Amino acid sequence: MTMAETTGVKAKRLSDAEYADNFSDIHPLLTAHEALVEADRCYFCYDAPCMTACPTSIDIPMFIRKIQAGNPVGSAKTIFEQNILGGMCARVCPTETLCEEACVRETAEGKPVKIGQLQRYATDTYMSRELPHPFKRAAATGKKVAVVGAGPAGLSCAHRLAMHGHDVVIYEARPKPGGLNEYGIASYKATNNFAQREIEWLMQIGGIELKLGQRLGTDISVESLAESHDAVFIGIGLSSAYTLNIPGSDLPGVEAAIDFIARLRQAEDKSTLPVGQDVVVIGGGMTAVDAAVQSKLLGARTVSLVYRRSREQMPASRYEQELAAAHGVHLVFNAKPVRISGANAVESVEFEYTRQDGANLVGTGETVEIPANQVLAAIGQWMEAEVGELELDGTTLARTPENRSPMPYPNVWVGGDCAHGGEDLTVVAVEDGKIAAENIHKTLMA
Amino acid sequence: MADLSTNFLGIKSPNPFWLASAPPTDKAYNVERAFEAGWGGVVWKTLGEAGPPVVNVNGPRYGAIWGPDRRLLGLNNIELITDRDLEINLREITEVKKRWPDRAMIVSIMVPCEEQSWKAILPRVEDTGADGIELNFGCPHGMSERGMGAAVGQVPEYIRMVAEWCKQYSKLPVIVKLTPNITDIRYPARAAKAGGADAVSLINTISSIVSVDLDNFAPMPTIDGKGSHGGYCGPAVKPIALNMVAEIARDPETRGLPISGIGGVSTWRDAAEFIALGCGTVQVCTAAMTYGFKIVQEMAQGLSDWMDEKGYATIADFQSRAVPNVTDWQYLNLNYVTKAKIDQDLCIKCGRCHIACEDTSHQAITSTVDGVRYFEVMEDECVGCNLCVNVCPIDDCITMVRMTDGADPRTGKPIDPDYANWTTHPNNPMARQAAE
Asked: Taking every annotated instance into account, which residue ranges of this chain make up the domain 4Fe-4S ferredoxin-type (chain B) (predicted)?
């Protein structure tokens, strides 16, 4: 039973069955048969392009060959060696712009090996069996490292440090660990509480203490952590969303897409979540797509995803764009918001069309008004945090190639989205944490 | 439209595709379905002597190896000859032959190596109206332990002796089915000919263990914890079969002896290759057991289409055409120089050619050029081995190109247009000196 005609921002637009269906796993786990058929397609390339394209350099041909050879557990170990959050990355990586785009079968047939799904097959197989944690801690070094932020960068860093025998304390501001994995990914990409299950599994390495509700600036400080620990890793992400700076952006019904997504992820019962009859999402990244698609899945009648530049320039991949379109999201390109209107709450958003004039994006003067009773802004995030005297590069933390903070504390490393050049990708954050951990280890043991 | 009909030892069939003696030809029901699907003939599953029939195991009878996507490449079986009563088989053969007079009906026989046994069964088979008999001297499992099958096929004197009995006690054409489980296939073939056999068919299955169950440490298929070697067949054995067929086809002592080719025939192309090496018909089993009888339609139509394309009106037009080109290594032209060439438009940059050459051959293929992933043959290192062609996943992406002039950049030697082989090569201590 659909009740999508209900106006305004309302919950319970769909039947229980529709909610369950809409928020089920978008790519269910491959069966053993499917995995074998797919694994057989891998050519085991030399110096494989997929491996080069993977930010964590997972030996993809090797893990696929292990699946093919009937050794999914060994396959998972190959993945975890490079990427301890291989299970989450298998779910959320935009593989179509990473490993799968580089796959030679994409060149050959326009149909890459389903690397992401095979990775999930291997890692889920490992984690679903009652197997010991794949890594053992080295002998205790007596060194103590603080990790700030329990997102992908921090977790990856902590795990690698613990493996090398260091004692790690993770300080996390939110009530749950996981960062974007827990709060920032579309629900259908990480169903069944996967983020928390993965973290519990990761913690089996031992030697990691997790302290929740510890916010930089209020409960802890970079300076004091740097003094009380042998090393500090900062991986706090970009916690705050940029807000629309146009008339009407303070009207009820306008909010940051990341808050909408976080609420959705935390809701046990999706039917309790209010969603607009007509939703407008402003932005062009994966957050925008996640917010738009999930608005539709919550029962919105119309969802428009409006991006100020062209389709080609959209940060969300073509696959993500098609996913949105397939869910009935209306994609609008080359339109920038100029005004949000409404009596007591948002009723419409006015956009001005744009065109590229050399390096500049200019308005054409032509406008369009899109009705909306919910507006989700996904126009980027910034690091709103008390980072003491840590050197900045623009609005993010400066870093060396080893992910070390250049100044002024000698024992601070940084990584993930809060670090300069962050790519807003889980897998890149994991790699940052790993590089930092290896460098911390080298430095502490020197 | 090409004429696919064959006349093998006077036995006519509408096409050269016969079903080999095996489970698919064990009873009238299967054989009729085969004929309906278009098979040109069958070799009825091997009959034993009168009396209580053999018994088969009631556990698994097959094992296999697979290629990608579980494509069946090799099949191994431990099934024996027919386990049905002789009288029932003879009656069904008679009935089926009567209903399908235009199809070849060959009856496979395996009885003890005693004259009386053969003398007893041959008239019974002849009475069915069958077109010919095939002597099963090839079965490598079970029956061989009882002195039959491959146990006979491995002793040329026995082959000759039994063939002689069959010619003596039957008017039917005699085909001797050879076992590949010997060192030199020419000896049993010569023995068959010496015994008066009209033809040979080969290969029977190869003694094999296809796999070992690593939980129970027993060969597969496993029957109550134990396994026995079986007979191996399917696409994997085709190269072995082709070689053995060619050996017989070009042996001066057996040249011209009709051959029915068996061993991994799965497509029209396989059949054409067997025929080009001298076979008059081909026999098929594994392909039918994998895909069902309909597969013959692809085979017959494919062969016909290819013959039309090439302008061959009849099977005889291309039969044995490859035999003169099978030679000994020592006669290969050592002045023939080829270099691999990679078509960059087709290359998908998997790098398999590079790593195969780099790790296991002659370090003649680049992996990068000017810092970019690029696979190119270095002609000054390439020995022309063809490994890269074989590991490349793309058809025709890498080809071997003959050098016809200039010098071989690897050896610096000018390309010699004349033929020269090892027998006269200066490095050959056995080289024959030219007459003064």
From this structure: 338-367, 373-403
DSSP, collapsed to helix, strand or coil, labels residue B230 as strand
Residue carrying the six token digits 């992933």: B373
Residue with tokens 């004429």: B3
pLDDT at residue A2 tops 70: no
Q: What is the share, in percent, of chain B residues with pLDDT greater than 70?
A: 99
* Smallest Cα distance from A73 to chain B, Å: 17
Helix, strand and coil content of chain A, in percent to the nearest 5, comes to 35, 20, 40
b/e A324-336 (16+ beta carbons within 10 angstroms → b):
beebebebbbbbb
Which domains, and CATH codes, for chain B? 6-325 (3.20.20.70), 331-435 (3.30.70.20)
Task: Please name the member of B351, B355, B394 whose beta carbon is closest to the beta carbon of A108.
Answer: B394
Burial (CB count within 10 angstroms: exposed 0-12, middle 13-18, buried 19+), residue B327: exposed
Which residues make beta-bridge pairs with B314? B3
Residues 395-414 of A with CB under 8 A from B: none
Q: How far apart are CA A90 and CA A86, in angstroms?
A: 6
Question: What average pLDDT is seen over chain A?
Answer: 95
What pLDDT does A4 receive? Answer: 40
pLDDT tens digit sequence for A188-232: 999 999 999 999 999 999 999 999 999 999 999 999 999 999 999
Does A130 contact chain B (CB < 8 Å)?
A: no
What string of H, E and C letters represents the secondary structure of A33-69? Answer: HHHHHHHCCCCCCCCCHHHHHCCCCCCHHHHHHHHHC
- What pTM, to 2 d.p., does this model score? 0.92
Task: Give the model's pLDDT for residue B434.
Answer: 53
Residue among A6, A426, A29 nearest A237 (CA): A426
Helix axes A32-39, A60-68, angle to 10 degrees: 120
Q: In chain B, which residues touch A (CB < 8 A)?
A: 68-70, 348-352, 354-355, 367, 373, 393-394
The mean pLDDT value for A139-156 works out to 98
Q: Is the peptide bond before A371 cis (omega within 30 degrees of 0)?
A: no
Rounded CA separation B18/B15 (Å): 8
Helix (H) or strand (E) holding A323: helix A318-326
Tokens standing for residue A23: 């928020």
pLDDT digits (tens, 9 = 90+) for B26-47: 999 999 999 999 999 999 999 9
Report the relative pairing of strands A381-382 and A392-393 from DSSP bridges.
unpaired
User: Dihedral through CA A390, CA A391, CA A397, CA A398, nearest 10?
Assistant: -140
pLDDT band at A6 (very low <50, low <70, confident <90, very high): low
Distance, in Å, from the CA atom of A247 to the CA atom of A96, rounded to the nearest integer, reads: 38
Burial class (CB in 10 A: 0-12, 13-18, 19+), A177: buried
Round to whole Å and give the CA distance between B50 and A407. 98
